[in-house]
Amino acid sequence: MIWTISDLHLSGVNPKPMDIFGSRWRNHPERIAAAWRRAIKPTDSVCIAGDISWAMHIDDAIVDLGWIDALPGHKYCIKGNHDYWWDRAGPIRARMPASITLIEGDAVDAGNIVVCGSRGWSAPGMPGFDPVTDQRIYAREVLRLERSLQAAKKIAGTRPIVAMLHFPPFIDKKPTEFVRLFEQYQITTCLYGHLHRNEDWNNATQAVVNGTTYQLTACDYLDFTPVAVRGLPF
Known about the structure:
5-stranded mixed sheet
């Protein structure tokens, strides 16, 4: 079984109570863990689309990664915009617990699926987008995502490809360059997070668009409960 949840926003070393963002976040790690253990088996996989830990450095993030490692299943993770502890995946992969695989512009064989992805970024048209500072990062993330999708295609064969993107691929229902790539490479499902307001949830694209299923996985949207990845043929 393939599950998903994102935006865990853990803070084991320097606690940052998330209920400052609303009462729905109260005791959210305990609620996630309880729901996770009820549903997920050790043989399952879990896709986490970024914003894993508030830690600023890998030494502090290890505590939160250990918390995730203790939960059932193998976890496939991409970087979110708040994962400051994650500079580049290469140097920190050796420090990951056995049940956690980091994905950054590449792809991994996850058994009956292939998982790939990149962080993404604010796209033109998103509120607050600054062409001076954001356009360069956005363009770089488009290239990273394409590299990831190319790697996935090489190893997938006939298996479904699940792509993770932390930032939303649509802005007010309008596709970004990320969507163009998903269509070009015929991706089965795109998982994304980042959105935490009711108005953003109501406007989020969650549908099958030109063959790709888009699914919002922010943990507060999911009521802190992992859900099955949609769009898979099993």
